[in-house]
Predict the structure.
Amino acid sequence: MVLVRPLKTNLPKALALVIVMAAFAWPVQAVRAQEPGSIQIISSSATSEFPEGIRFKLQATSDTDIASVAVRFRAGVQTSGTYDYLKFEPGPSVDAELLWRTNTSARYIPPGTLITYVFEVEDAAGSVASTEPVTIPYHDARFEWIEVSEGPVTVAYHGPVESRARAILDVSIQTIEKMGPLLGAEMETPIRVTMYNNVKEMLEALPPGSSTVRSELVTEGQAFSEVSTVMVLGGGRLSLGTASHELTHILTHRAGDSVFRGLPSWLDEGLAEYGNVDPGFSYDVALEFAIGTGRLIPVVFTQTLPGIPEDVIIYYGQSRSIVRYMIEKFGADKMRDLMTTLKKGTDMDKALTEVYGVNRLGLYQAWLKSVGAPPYVPPKAGAARPTPIPWPTVLPFSLTPQVEAAAIETLEPTPTPATAEQPQVTEEPSPTPAQAAVAEATAETAAAQPQAAASTPAPASPGGCSAPASGNGAVEASSAALLFGVAGLVLWRKKRRED
């Protein structure tokens, strides 16, 4: 059952709606009072032309020619901003204008993002005037938007879908109340949610990208953590869960991302699904299948999502299960401490060791044991190396490669000692709960290592990576190119002698 929380207001509904519509009617202008005889700013405005961009306008006069008109603006909660000049015909009275384009990947700003801007005007005499800061929502210009808000969350919608917008607002508030304290995330900064009614509307609002990807995939939601904005497909059957998932991404960004590195994908996606207040069951089914068929992915060691759709579902299911294990086994306080440590820029292994007493391998082994899966045996470093081949010696004016026997002997591969990543569990007089949980799993993994070292190296786990091996008897392309070059030189000299 969906619980819809009413908008908190003491005003009649009709009056509240009129105020909301009036608050976001563009253009908006705010002018700082000027001294007599100085620059006079007549009007200023910013108008959304999404997806093309934002159109800035300003009218001003001065006793002398106006030299420049500039605008400073920033998107969302970003601390850095943009500075650019408006175009106008020079003179004591100007009508300046600038279309700041957002229809490229580098300049894209998601719809619904708050834009704060200030104009600055300077004349030839050196006088400077500026407007007061104004904050406006950068709405999609194709539609008339209505907004509903509660706490820090605002949901923008269009059309007769108020009940759906309020349902998304409700799950957003539930998500903040559930995940904010658990992560130790700041919860006061506004979060903007733009809800589209169908796939076509959403498709045209997404960041510029590959047409092939757009035609084959349906994006149900997307979070833009840097500006605290979320886009969600309100007409989708998973819209409530999608909104909750994407909003959690913003909270994890605030709690754990540092200026040095972001959260690893498995932790970011695992927390987003753990925070989902309306989850589906597909991830649980995929995880059960992966455990039963030996298709588990060592997600804690991966940098990005897999490229195979089936593996992506397994990845999400594993990540959520690992995060749930960490929270239910060791408590929410540990997860909050982990996020605080990562926020300082600490790498993942060091942060886990500091908070839980084990590194990624130790955590992964403990989780595998908890779900009844066999221990993970890390691939051995240097076990899969390309087979070296002899470099052919080309004699002058000969097209037959000659390989000396001595050269072959010297190019025989030398066995390289194989090393495997071992659990870095430090023995303490009083082991932590996490160390006790992984001790048995670590012992099983260590016992499996000698057997693996004595046998042929096992193939990498699904989703892993191994170095390619060259085929026997292969001749490198560079050698073939050299042979053709020598042949061409012989023919060229022969032709010159004949001439």
User: Anything to note?
Assistant: The domain at 146-370 is CATH 1.10.390.10 (Neutral Protease; domain 2).
